[in-house]
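debug: dumping io for the single-chain case to check the tokenizer round-trip. Nothing else runs in this session.
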Amino acid sequence: MAAQTRLSHVDGLAGELIVGGYQLKELAGRVSFEEAAHLLWRGALPSRDELKILNKEIAGLRALPEETMHVVRAAAKAPPIDALRMACATMSLDLKQPDDISPAADMQAAKVLAARFPTVVAAHARLSAGKEPIAPRTDLPLAANFLYMIHGKEPDPIAARAVDTYWVTVIDHGMNASTFTARVIASTRSDMVSAVTGAIGALKGPLHGGAPGPVLDMLKDIKSGDRAEAWVRNELAAGRRIMGFGHRVYKVRDPRAEVLSSVADKMSSAALDNRKLFELARAAEQTILKVLDEVKPGRNLRTNVEFFTALVLQALGLEPRSFVATFACGRVAGWCAHVIEQHSEDHLIRPQSEYIGPRGLKIGGE
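debug: decoded output
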């Protein structure tokens, strides 16, 4: 048991995700990302006045310092998650006391990181496409402003709500690898920015951050619902993984997939191509689940969060290479909450290891 936490709980057998005391379905689509962040950081949903203050504070912190923007520009050709990691490390430069781990300092750093992650991802997306970054606006909510900085126009309310719902859905998820990384770093009394930078490094790995982009490639290969069974059987026979299915914890359908399926359904109504892709995805999902149950009985390989994440983010006009970095824009609030919690406990995480190497070796000689 690595830690005790009030932040989130994952029940893989029941398919439940509790965030700050609420079932995910109670929060996603019903509260904003800023409200969910307040829930994790402060332990309760904000009052109307508290939310107004928090929204204003985060809006005022969105612009990137010159040093951070310089790094984003230098990393224009790098993968977005690498650019975010590098940019994150610079965000302590304009904190008054970057090594301060007091509750007040942690809260301020959390607001800075949550405010600036979307700005970094949006700026990098435009620079990668040969365009100039767009300065953030302070009159839009965080999710709507993210899409504005990506596309250069105020987003459709449905699209903005989709981003908001997505970020709330992925805001925290138990003691996953990146969250554990952040807590280990924080447990040494290191600072918030260092801990979150480390968390990004853990998220980058495909066994954790996943690969929602290849879900789109899979659907393009399948082409139509009547081809799904032959396609999945061929992939399994070749020993390849079926993207968007299976989870280390969930033995039933990932509750986040349930939420994002509904979001993808609403998003797909706005464009014919998106609707066709969504209908293909739903048909392919049912076929894939049937074949997985037959070919891999007892493995309980169910739909995970990656499957519908891909549909939502592509419908928003985001490039697949930006998907993991966009995920980090939601998860950062959870990382920060865990750092705050770990600092308050002030306990060094020092697990044991089992030595399996040789013993009794001696240096050769007379």
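debug: round-trip ok. The beta strands are 8-11, 16-19, 22-23.
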